[in-house]
């Protein structure tokens, strides 16, 4: 029942209006409104934990460096954040507590940012793949990060066996390709001995970063070892060992005129001897057939 009052000609008139109200509908609307206000904040988002961003986030890093996998959680409250390696469902961390024996993994939180970051130190090729950030809420709240690991390669310029004359200048080159960052250094070895360049032997080295190589790749790094006036003692294996990629080896043979002439002579004598032996064998075979 509703009272309606209005004035007409100085006389107040009261009209009683009877109407039918669905009490259950009203209570239901009030209840839904209260629940909605509890679940959502003033900006329209749920007051429970949720992740900032959608889809799979990609992170690319180079082997041997550190990787940082981000997970931004809002309105976390008293819930926990876990990092899981998807390929084997291994729980790596829960909040700041580590659940893996590998000390390269660590989770840390940056205050007032909402970021729970998984750090992987000295990344290896096997670390590549999917990782999942999970919040201990019902229903499950999670997001995935795909870690891509770049593995640079080292290539030798020229053949792996080099023959040079004594007294000539020798340049041995290697190229580092596919690296996100150039190597911080390239070490050269003669056998197992590390070379100290610009020394009394006349060895020197140089590194060219970012310049185009023989294939036009401008992201490569070229390392060169220069041997002035090569001597017989300079023969042996030389290894190019960059800081961020596997080493490659070249074998250097330094020959002088005498050794070259004697090598040719011995080779000719051996060929002559082998030819004589072959003729004798053919002759014996023919005689046995007849």
Written account of the structure:
The chain has 290 residues and is of the alpha+beta class. 17% of the residues lie in helices and 42% in strands. Strands 4-13-12-7-8-9 form a six-stranded mixed β-sheet, with no helix packed on it. The protein has a five-stranded mixed β-sheet with strand order 15-22-21-17-18. Strand 8 and strand 9 form a beta hairpin. The longest helix has 33 residues.
Topology record:
Layout: E1 2-8, E2 11-17, H1 23-39, E3 50-51, E4 57-62, E5 67-69, E6 73-74, E7 81-85, E8 90-94, E9 97-98, E10 105-110, E11 115-120, E12 129-135, E13 141-150, E14 153-156, E15 161-165, E16 170-177, E17 186-190, E18 193-194, E19 203-209, E20 221-227, E21 236-242, E22 248-255, H2 257-289
Parallel strand pairs: 4-13, 15-22
Antiparallel strand pairs: 1-2, 3-6, 5-11, 7-8, 7-12, 8-9, 10-11, 12-13, 14-16, 16-20, 17-18, 17-21, 19-20, 21-22
């Amino acid at each position: 029942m509703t009272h309606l009052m209005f004035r007409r000609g100085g006389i107040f008139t009261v009209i009683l209006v009877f109407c039918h109200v669905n009490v259950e509908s009203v209570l239901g609307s009030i209840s839904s409104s209260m629940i909605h206000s509890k679940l959502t904040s003033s900006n329209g988002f749920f007051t429970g934990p949720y992740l900032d961003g959608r889809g799979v986030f990609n992170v690319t890093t180079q082997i041997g460096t550190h990787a940082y996998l981000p997970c931004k959680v809002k309105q976390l409250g008293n819930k926990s954040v876990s990092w899981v390696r998807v390929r084997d469902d291994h729980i790596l961390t829960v909040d700041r507590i580590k659940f893996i024996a590998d000390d390269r993994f660590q989770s840390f939180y940056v205050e007032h940012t909402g970021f729970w970051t998984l750090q992987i130190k000295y990344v290896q090729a096997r670390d590549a793949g999917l990782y999942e950030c999970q919040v201990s809420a019902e229903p499950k709240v999670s997001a995935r990060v795909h870690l891509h690991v770049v593995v640079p390669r080292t290539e030798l310029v020229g053949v792996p066996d080099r023959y040079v004359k004594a007294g000539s200048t020798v340049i041995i080159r290697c190229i580092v390709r596919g690296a996100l960052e150039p190597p911080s250094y390239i070490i050269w070895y003669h056998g197992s001995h590390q070379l100290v360049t610009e020394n009394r032997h006349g060895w020197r080295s140089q590194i060219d970063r970012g310049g185009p190589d023989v294939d036009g790749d401008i992201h490569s790094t070229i390392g060169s070892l220069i041997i002035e006036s090569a001597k017989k003692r300079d023969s042996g294996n030389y290894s190019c060992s960059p800081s961020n990629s596997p080493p490659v080896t070249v074998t250097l043979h330094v020959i002088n005129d005498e050794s070259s002439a004697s090598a040719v002579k011995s080779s000719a004598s051996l060929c002559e001897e082998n030819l004589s032996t072959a003729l004798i064998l053919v002759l014996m075979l023919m005689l046995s057939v007849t």
